[in-house]
Amino acid sequence: MLILASASPRRRELLTQLGCSFEVVVSATDECSDESLSPEELTLRNATQKALAVAKLRPEAPVLGADTVVALDGHIYGKPRDEAAAIDMLKKLVGKEHLVITGIALAHRGKVYTDAVTTKVAMAPLTEAAIKKYVATGEPLDKAGAYAVQGKAAAFITGIVGSFSNVVGLPLHTVCTLAETAGVAL
Q1: Taking Cα atoms as reference points, which of 143, 116, 144, 120 lies closest to residue 40?
Q2: Which three-class secondary structure state does DSSP give residue 186?
Q3: Domain range holding 116?
Q4: Which of 12, 64, 67, 125 has the fewest CB atoms within 10 Å, i.e. the most exposed one?
Q5: Per-residue pLDDT band at 37 (split at 50, 70, 90)
Q6: What is the pTM of this model?
């Protein structure tokens, strides 16, 4: 059985979609937000810290950690702290193409297997009123980049190049590849 070191309901849904047997044990580690790191380095660091923290509690099981951010013009956007931050993030993303980066780490038998996946997402231009209406739904408040591609924000997305499941929060193909490399049956 796999241990998912994440409270994300979207990651649970994606693993369930695979038919994976797993248990959730949320990591108590604080996420790094060091903007001197590249988005890939940042997500890999956070994913690895989460996986290793839970692996200490459950050393008998493989542990999967993940971290997702949005990047645009050299800035990294995680989860907004409040509605005002969500509005600000979306104002910067709309009408542009940005990157969604997820770092994943699989801790198993004393080793950590990692990878980062990048997907390009294009978002339509939106009025400030449309942004505020979307933010008022509450949907963007716990999402990197302040939007949920699998939710109401799907209406704003004009294109995706790369892994759709990555934009949701867990690149399934890469998870399966890392699990195979680590000898973990999903």
Answers
A1: 116
A2: coil
A3: 2-182
A4: 125
A5: very high
A6: 0.94
List, as one string, the DSSP characters of 5-67: ----HHHHHHHHHHT--EEE----PPPP--TTS-HHHHHHHHHHHHHHHHHHH-TTS-EEEEE
* Number of domains making up the chain: 1
C-beta separation of 29 from 88 below 8 A: no
- 135-171 confidence digits (pLDDT tens): 999 999 989 999 999 999 999 999 999 999 999 999 9
**What CATH number is given to the structural domain containing 15?**
3.90.950.10
> Which residues are designated catalytic?
67
Q: Residues with Cβ < 8 Å from 176, sequence gap 6 or more? A: 18, 186
Q: Any bridge partners for residue 65, and if so which?
A: 105
The two tokens of residue 60 are 């008998």
- What is the chain's percent helix, strand, coil content, to nearest 5? 40, 25, 30
Based on its alpha-carbon atoms, the radius of gyration of the chain, rounded to whole angstroms, reads 16
> Token match 């490399």: residue?
181
Place of tokens 């059985």: 1
